[in-house]
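Retro notes
What went well: the complex prediction finally ran end to end.
Inputs used:
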Amino acid sequence: MEYALFIGCNIPARVPQYESAARAVLEKLSVGIVDIADYACCGYPMRTADRKTWLLAAARNLALSEARDIDTLVLCQCCFGSFKHAQHALANDAALTAEINKELAPLGLEYKGRTQVVHLLTALHDWVGPNNIKNALAKKFAGLSVAVHNGCHALRPSRITGFDDPLNPVLCDSLVSLTGALPVDWENRLECCGAPLMGYKEDLSASLMEKKLSGARNAGAKCIVSNCPWCQLQFDSVQARAAAGNGKAAVPSILFPQLLGLAMGIDADKLGLADNILDISGLAQLLEE
Amino acid sequence: MNLAVLVYVALAICILGLFIKKLSLFFRDMGIYASGEPKARRIISGITGFWGMLFSKKIFSALWVFLADVLLQRRILTQSFTRWAMHMLIFYGFSYLLVFHALAVFFANPDEAYLNPWLFLRNVAGVMVLAGLCIAFARRFIIKVPRLKTNGQDYYALALVALIIVSGLVLEGSKMTSQRVFVDMVENWAGLSVEDDEAEVKGLEAYWSKHYGLKVPGVKAPFDEEMLTEGGYANETYCASCHVSNKWAPAGYVTAKILSPIAGPLDRANAPHILYWIHVLTCLLGLAYLPFSKMLHIFSTPASLVANAVMGDESKPENLATKQLLELEACTHCGTCSLTCSAMMGYYATGNPLILPAEKMQFLKKFAWGRKLSPKEMDALAEGMYVCTNCDRCTVVCPSGIELKRLWLSVREAVIQKGAAQPNVLSPLSWFRGLNREKLPAEAYNEPVKKAQEALAGRFDEIMAQDAVVELGSEASKSVDPTFASCFGCQTCTTVCPVAGNYENPGKRLGLVPHQIMLCLAMGQDEMASGAAMIWECVTCYQCQENCPQNVGVADVLYSLKNLAAKNLEQRKAGQKAA
């Protein structure tokens, strides 16, 4: 199975460890990855001010995948949501699709809605499968309670994203359990991390983040497991900045492929553990044969 | 016309222009790094910074970058082999001609100009430049690389180099065909007399006509064998020690052959003389105008590459400010950044070319030089600066080594503070701004947000006043997601909304809460709905939409209201400008 890897904008610029860890894990699990250099922004941040910009941006990327006749593997959940919403909007509107294709034609592209958009977790669970992942593990975690953060834009609205059960998601939890880590039930686990408001509604953004962190702390989680660079940066850089001011105990955040990669025995350098602002190197100590 | 005088005048203008341009780097303000700094401090910091770099380990980085990125231009090569080949051909071809042809008096022996390797290499270099120019022309006008735009400066640069090379080539060809030049050579260089050494001269004429492209009216093939032999000996005796076969200048020779049919009229018009002056004057005008044209990049771009190899976050802010002004000069409008820009679709959707990084750079030159921008231009610039995902690709690919990401951070802040309200500020495009808050001036940090909030609310406060009249019986705009119509007021959306749940008094803070917005729209009150602060505080977590028992796309409706509010603001701005 081969996928075109879509990494968006946040990951290469600010969270490169998500890409390096994902590549390392996918390689070890024999998932073929193709790189399409012409990919650009998924359109998510443009959607607020201008719908057309968002649709054009999303459709162009999807058309690039279609031109290679390949499915699109996405790491960022905001990118995932953007693509799913765009596919949904265009699937039910022939006139809109024609309008979009009129702009794409001079770029040599056409959007037909043929590429499947798949999040990393779905690819790992549905294509690789829990058994193959278990067999690829070198060690398992012991005594590691984690707060699994599902994010928002993949989970909801489930009618459009079709990612997991929106009220009781199990996908990430089950994958995390394979590594031996224990997903805890934590207050506000399905709530938003607050990242979308950072930069213009910072008080609200910080308040939402703090609600999540206190839930994780109260549940005794050693770390949060995230699946999106926005969530990761919020729980990592932004929490670090806030913690410096408010003196609360920081709950570090690890990206899922970093967690899985550790259990698979992949080198910490390849997983980019040192790129995380809040130190997660201690987690490696909880691995046992 | 004394050539030497003209050269010195052109050189003086060039040097004066360079001096003014370089000094201006310390005197202009553009972004957030040096506003208000005394100019003297900027000059001193610049000099001490440069000096410090020379005598530290950084000199090695500087030298390495000079080799790899200035001489070998690997930054172009990593992006496009064709573009690298194009630029290498022009760069090295022209440099060769500058050093060994224009400045032959310093770097070669002018008396050997018509001997090899000089005669041959001069042609090779000229053809190299021509080949490069053809690729440049094809890229811009035939293949039409996406998002690559051509402005006056680009036309000038292409035209200047083309004119220099083509005039040189045609000059060479016309000289080869010219009888006047032949006679001049024979009398002043071979030391023969046309009247007294008739046999030898006639022989030379025949020989040169057959082999070297000379076109004397009335003299044509077939040539007398004896005359050719005589000519051959004469050539060996009088010419060959200074002038090898013209075929060693194949491009010139081919040009001569092409010009042959009109050689006579050309010669009568004294074409070689005229072409010589066209050629030389073009070069000198190019030299004089250099600091004011795209050609300034031959100094600024290497400087930018080296500066960016040795400067970073630790550099003094005033030096960063100077570097940014240098970077504006270093931009060659090559369009690589626009080609790879993540936000490019914003350009196609809105038609605002300033979303493209290369166009921003060109426009910023005006901004930096203090040109007064109209409100429309300022607005377009602010939108262009803000529609950027900060993916840093432009910075990675720029062949001039420009640290675009720092430019954007610095100038964007200055522009959104100065300009009109930008809806994009109230979107995830502000993520980068939030993450880098400590690098931005603290006092004014919230101003763009407040400005946008107030402008987008429109007449909300008026409409919401207790005694305001509400017009019923209208329908919500077609652009609003229509699923609001299924709402039956259960208030689940508001109950699960983390934003509403965050405030003691959500109604007061947000204007309207989610279910109220749905009901507003059902009453056709989209101006009321789109003016509510709620829509800009929506964190798009989609809890509302997920939990709605009626499948109302609550969050999607809020998105469409944001779009509507932004459009309405555009129209109000356009109306104000028209008014």
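What we learned: The beta strands of chain A are 2-6, 32-34, 71-74, 117-119, 140-141, 145-148, 182-183, 223-226, 253-255, 287-288.
What to try next: split runs per interface for comparison.
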